[in-house]
């Protein structure tokens, strides 16, 4: 079955019910128990009119005490059974929604980066929250109501046929009329519900966009414009909700009209038949009760079908999210043979691709003793067929060395970082970690070797300790103190109420930009990576802190390889190697003095900057 045919089938009532039923996989036992309890309660309810018939027919004899007590017991048993069945259903619905939300959250956190480029974050969040909430009502009520309502209606109809087939024919005519009206409205309800769910997703996405850039919104006095933009989505959701309500308002009276009409017909025609002695008064009472009882299951069936149609809009959005491509968990290809380990250094020195134990340092290897921590060989990449970024880039980052990437904006520096972090895969060429092709390693294995300090420093809501130990939750207090010392976060610790336990607020809004950058650097250093990626590490630092960072980086290279992007050449002028990029090509490489003498592009970059030579105590960043 092709995708289009599948969509058309899903739009039918049968396809919608089948799709909703698939959600209950793994919860069928609970659904069965709830269905059985509901059916038992309904059977107890169906027995009550027959007992009432006998009580009415025996009223003249006066022997009705025990039947009345039995009727009361049936009523109480029905109520208790229905209550237990409803609880089981509600719990099942909550469990299904919990599973959906967990699955969605886990899937969304593992999507390929290209998927995030195509979809808005707020809309994806809405699928986890609003859409799953709507589905809870469907799976906890509609499915069982559809099954039990249909069975109870069949049972009631069978008993009504037994009592008076003619009266049943009159009831059937009114019910069929109502069913025709309801069926004609279902497609409109489904379409309106889908439109409303999409509008709610747009509200969440636009609100997340505005709140995420609130300082910019405020300073540019754009509150009213953003409110108007979001208000348009609110109006769309309102219009769709009103349309849904309008259609539902027609459906409900149609059902009620059928109920009241059938009741009046039964009362009038049945009364005439009692007067004509075709039926007894007890028969009329029992038939009226069954007609009344028939209303409840039929109403629940109509309501369930309408609810399922509304839920299908949310279900399709969830399925679309789950269908987005996630990152693979294994390597891109199997390793044909184990990669040779680098020649061993001193006995106490850990392998080069592993972080050393806390408090230890690597012993520099002999020249040529091991493969570089990172190597790119003729790597080509583009974000689309018409957007080439890297065009045959080759470079290497030896262990315990600092390599810098410089070049104008758009040269491809940040894209190299994205490839090293395996956010994207190269179109061609080879990426190697310690001599092993990245394709032979899982993304998790590659990322375990690196730490990244992005120019958009990410500080999450939580305490300072939570942020520092985010990638190393088992870090010891001594390790935490070490990175605080290296990055000079003492002032931040002292200033925050609670010190390391002090809360940083949403996106770290209690810190300055430079402090957030130092928190990100400390977090990266705490993992003791084999390769540290620094993207514009001095973009928010003053001259003194920038000069001190250069000294810190020199100390860090005793433990790991460092690949740094810098527009400020003063930060990287002492790097072991500087790689100059231009339009996706490596046009030069060498040390600072060599490039100044031999490369015009580098001289142009350097000429646009006054290279700072401010010094600071080695081993830590100075006080702000």
UniProtKB/TrEMBL annotation:
Compositionally skewed regions (Pro residues) per UniProt: 337-349
Transmembrane segments annotated in the record for this chain: 68-89, 142-163, 169-189, 253-272, 284-308
Keywords from the named record: ATP-binding, Membrane, Nucleotide-binding, Transmembrane, Transmembrane helix
MF terms in GO: ATP binding
Gene3D superfamilies: ABC transporter type 1, transmembrane domain, P-loop containing nucleotide triphosphate hydrolases
Membrane topology label: Multi-pass membrane protein
Domain spans labelled ABC transporter: 374-608
UniProt region (Disordered), positions on chain: 328-368
Subcellular location per the Swiss-Prot or TrEMBL entry: Cell membrane
CDD domains: ABC_6TM_LmrA_like
Domain (ABC transmembrane type-1): residue spans on this chain: 33-310
Domain of life: Bacteria
SUPFAM superfamilies named among the record's database cross-references: ABC transporter transmembrane region, P-loop containing nucleoside triphosphate hydrolases
Name of this chain's protein: ABC transporter ATP-binding protein
Protein source organism: Streptomyces stramineus
């Amino acid at each position: 079955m092709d995708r289009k045919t599948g969509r058309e089938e899903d739009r039918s009532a049968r396809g919608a019910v089948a799709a909703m039923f698939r959600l209950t996989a793994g919860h069928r036992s609970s659904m069965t128990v709830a269905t059985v309890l509901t059916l038992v309660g309904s059977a107890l309810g169906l027995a009550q009119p027959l007992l009432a018939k006998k009580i009415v027919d025996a009223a003249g004899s006066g022997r009705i005490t025990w039947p009345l007590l039995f009727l009361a017991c049936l009523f109480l048993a029905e109520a208790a059974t229905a209550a237990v069945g409803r609880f089981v259903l509600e719990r099942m619905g909550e469990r299904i929604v919990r599973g959906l939300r967990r699955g969605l959250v886990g899937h969304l956190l593992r999507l390929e980066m290209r998927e995030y480029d195509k979809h808005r974050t707020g809309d994806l969040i809405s699928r986890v929250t609003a859409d799953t909430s709507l589905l809870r009502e469907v799976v906890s009520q509609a499915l069982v109501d559809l099954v039990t309502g249909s069975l109870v209606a069949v049972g009631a109809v069978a008993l009504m046929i037994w009592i008076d087939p003619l009266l049943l024919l009159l009831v059937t005519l009114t019910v069929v009329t109502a069913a025709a009206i309801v069926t004609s409205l279902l497609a409109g309800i489904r379409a309106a519900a889908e439109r409303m769910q999409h509008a709610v997703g747009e509200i969440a996405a636009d609100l997340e966009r505005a709140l995420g850039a609130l300082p910019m919104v405020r300073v540019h006095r754009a509150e009213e414009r953003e409110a108007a933009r979001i208000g348009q989505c609110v109006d769309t959701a309102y219009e769709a909700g009103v349309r849904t309500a309008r259609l539902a308002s027609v459906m409900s009276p149609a059902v009620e009209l059928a109920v009241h009409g059938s009741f009046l017909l039964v009362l009038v025609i049945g009364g005439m038949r009692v007067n004509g002695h075709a039926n007894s008064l007890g028969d009329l009472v029992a038939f009226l009760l069954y007609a009344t009882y028939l209303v409840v299951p039929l109403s629940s069936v109509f309501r369930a079908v309408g609810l399922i149609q509304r839920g299908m809009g949310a279900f399709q959005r969830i399925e679309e999210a789950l269908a987005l491509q996630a990152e693979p968990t294994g390597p891109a290809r199997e390793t044909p043979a184990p990669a040779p380990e680098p020649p061993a250094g001193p006995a106490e020195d850990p392998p080069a691709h592993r972080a050393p134990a806390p408090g230890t340092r690597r012993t520099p290897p002999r020249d040529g003793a091991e493969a570089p921590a990172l190597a790119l060989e003729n790597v080509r990449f583009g974000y689309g067929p018409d957007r080439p970024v890297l065009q045959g880039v080759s470079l290497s980052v030896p262990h315990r060395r600092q390599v810098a990437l410089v070049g104008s904006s758009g040269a491809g520096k940040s894209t190299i970082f994205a490839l090293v972090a395996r956010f994207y895969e190269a179109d061609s060429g080879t990426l190697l970690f310690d001599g092993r092709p990245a394709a032979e390693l899982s993304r998790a294995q590659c990322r375990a070797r690196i730490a990244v300090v992005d120019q958009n420093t990410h500080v999450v809501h939580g305490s300072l300790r939570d942020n520092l130990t985010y990638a190393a939750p088992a870090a010891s207090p001594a390790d935490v103190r070490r990175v605080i010392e290296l990055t000079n976060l003492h002032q931040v610790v002292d200033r925050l109420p609670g010190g390391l336990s002090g809360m940083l607020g949403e996106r770290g809004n209690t810190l300055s930009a430079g402090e957030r950058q130092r928190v990100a650097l400390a977090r990266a250093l705490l993992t003791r990576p084999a390769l540290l990626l620094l993207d514009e590490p001095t973009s928010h630092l003053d001259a003194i802190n920038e000069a001190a960072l250069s000294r810190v980086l020199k100390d860090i290279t005793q433990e790991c390889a460092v690949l740094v992007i810098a527009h400020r050449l003063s930060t990287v002028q002492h790097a072991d190697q500087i790689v100059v990029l231009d339009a996706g090509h490596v046009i030069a490489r060498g040390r600072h003095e060599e490039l100044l003498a031999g490369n015009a592009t580098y001289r142009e970059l350097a000429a646009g900057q006054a290279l700072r030579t401010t010094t600071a105590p080695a081993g830590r960043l100075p006080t702000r």
